[in-house]
Amino acid sequence: MKRSSNRSSPESVRAKRRARGGWRAAPGVAIVAALAAVLTACTAPGGVPADDPRSTQIPALEEFHTQELAWEDCSDYAITAQDEKYFPLAPEAECARMQVPLDYADPAGDTASVAVVRVPARGESQGSLFFNPGGPGGAGLLGTIGASSLMTESAVTESFDLIGFDPRGVGATEPAIDCKLTDGSAEGADLLARIGSPIPTLTEDDTKELADRCAEGSGGMEALANVGTRTTAKDMDVLRAVLGEDKLNFLGQSYGTRLGAIYAEEFPENVRTMILDGAFDPSLGSQERLLASYGGFQGSFEDLAAFCATQADCPLGTDPSGWTAALQGILQPLVDNPVPAGDTELNFDAGLGGVLASFYSPDLWPLAIEGLREVQQGRGDQLLQLATGIAGISDEGQSSNMTDASIAINCVDEDLLDADELAQLREDTFAQAPIMDSGTAADESTRDKCADFPVTGELGIPYAQDIEGLPSTLVISLTGDAATPYGGAVDLAKTLGSTLLTVEGEGHTVIGKGVSACADAIAATYLLDLELPENAPELTCAVNQ
């Protein structure tokens, strides 16, 4: 295997990330994060038996399928302070690096190094359960270790090794995406501010600067071109083979549902079980998907406001007809007059990002309400804390590369929008979700931020269509999911021929989080026994009371 020329040690990667330590919340980062997007032989080479799962792979990838992972303690894979804090929650976890082609069209060329974590089953293992916690740009190592700590009583973690990995360009996987937006430079912060608004208005100079910064910090244009979801799905299949798994068991949440659907499209014959929780709609193009999400945000805001109206001194008031105007009255002045927040400031984008972050769980609503009260009093600490939490920034101000990776992955995956489409998107967004409106006039210059990326539109929308040979899969959604609206789950289930499990309640994603014991039980039985209730393909559960 040819080593990638830009491979570095975990220590050097960690030091590079920590060089950003003084940056806390550049304008726009919270918005970016919140919108926060895959041959048989009698005897295989290398002495692998013909019945080994690795013997059925593409010959050019054989050396990757037969590699042995060197499992070790995960401490050297901790990139951020959050990693260092939460990795010890699973002392039994082991980490390793897996080599994969940087470009699957050139498997003899440079390699990428994928960071992998394994949390062994608490009992006798019956195989591996692959897990992706969401994104794009979400750290798989941290998410998997966190999930294992929440599932200590689950029959699933009793019987399955939990497997996670940092996807292409993310976290400890190398090369990691670094667009130099959060490097402490004024130029990076200014560019992030311009691209970070819900509907950015950009020039050709802006988009060229973004592509150049991302390429320069990430190992070149070739590395940047190979961070898309289809490439990550291929990595996941290599990992399946390396672990000796004949079939894949997969739990994907949020963006992980897109990754899972693409894997199902690329490798349907390699799927045993697949749970897609908090679903991306496979039929929506970039414009439609953003509008659906923004509309979901508006609905979730109204739910938050209704809760607020039951509390004393609600900063949004008690009249439903005035809730949006009240929020705008609190946040829009931050465009020109940010308020102090810790050792930085809270502007409109970060303030809105904090409110949006609270839509991921009703448990966060009181924090958002308190944050709005603080802004009325001239402080932005609480909303900043919510915003930076979803953006992958620790309390110490140290950031993961979630924002940069999210931008790059979405650029490679999704179709470009032209100027007319962007103008229409802005108009439609503020009509459907007026909470997103900063109150500023649109700039006539408008260009898709991804216009100068080396690859765009790689995903192909609609995707995962007319798949043959895919076994039974399970799609799950909360009815009040703002980030990935319920309608997307309905469409994904129809597309894959899946059983749809509807969970009535608010929030984003269900399994393993203590949200619904009913849903957890159905998921466990499906994973362990390949069984679904008799009233499938449509099931309903409630959230825990």
Note down, in words, how this protein is organized.
The protein has 20 helices and eleven strands. It is an alpha/beta fold and about 550 residues long. The protein has helices at about 10-20, 30-35, 60-65, 80-85, 140-150, 155-160, 185-195, 205-220, 220-225, 230-240, 255-265, 285-310, 325-330, 350-355, 365-375, 380-390, 400-415, 420-430, 485-495, 515-530, and strands at about 95-100, 110-120, 130, 160-165, 250-255, 270-275, 340, 345, 475-480, 500-505, 540. About 40% of the residues lie in helices and about 10% in strands. The strands form two sheets. It has a nine-stranded mixed β-sheet with strand order 1-2-4-3-5-6-9-10-11, sandwiched between helices. A two-stranded antiparallel ribbon has the order 7-8. It has a single domain, classed as Alpha/Beta hydrolase fold, catalytic domain (Rossmann fold), CATH 3.40.50.1820. Helix 10 crosses helix 11, helix 12 (about 285-310) runs parallel beside helix 18 and helix 15 (about 365-375) packs across helix 16. Strand 5, helix 11 (about 255-265) and strand 6 (about 270-275) form a beta-alpha-beta unit.
Structural key phrases:
545 residues; alpha/beta; 11 strands; 12% strand; disordered N terminus
Outline the fold blueprint.
Layout: H1 10-18, H2 29-34, H3 62-65, H4 81-86, E1 94-101, E2 111-119, E3 128-132, H5 140-150, H6 155-159, E4 161-165, H7 186-195, H8 204-218, H9 221-225, H10 229-242, E5 248-253, H11 255-266, E6 271-277, H12 286-308, H13 323-331, E7 339-341, E8 344-346, H14 348-357, H15 365-376, H16 381-390, H17 402-413, H18 419-432, E9 474-480, H19 486-496, E10 499-506, H20 517-529, E11 538-542
Parallel strand pairs: 3-4, 3-5, 5-6, 6-9, 9-10, 10-11
Antiparallel strand pairs: 1-2, 2-4, 7-8
Helix pairs in contact: 10-11, 12-18, 14-16, 15-16
